[in-house]
Amino acid sequence: MPTRRVATGRMALATVMGLGMLWTLPNSVLGLLLGIAGMSLGARPHWRARERALVFRRWPWGSGGALTLGNVIIYTGDELATPCLTYAHRAGLRVDDAIVLADHERAHVYQYMLLGPLFLPVYLLCGGVSVRNPFERAADRYALSGRGWWP
Predict the structure, then answer these.
(1) Could you tell me which of 34, 83, 131, 138 has the fewest CB atoms within 10 Å of its CB?
(2) Predicted local confidence at residue 96, as pLDDT
């Protein structure tokens, strides 16, 4: 019986993830269009199952960073599993160990899958890209501990 429960749990998780991906599809389409636009300048797509996202690496928009739109991550570097500092660390509020950017962005993928098309307006109302934004703090917390991706 335990094997049946595990299989049922996996099916339920896959269903929830699939519904989340469908719910955030408008955001993912924006990310896909942005990623495709960068391909002519060197961006390269690949699927990262752990992040549940299509990642466009080497996106030509500056010296560093990542942007998540639904189940699409736009990244300026070569490898998403790279160390970076938390928002609180960069703001001088805390000294944290470095986090892995892939973990931070995965938290945003989960946030998008829950809020779908509401994510961007809510994110912007919460402060946008800043240490004050609870979505960014939650993504940092998740990257540090593996828990707590929701603000």
Answers:
(1) 83
(2) 74
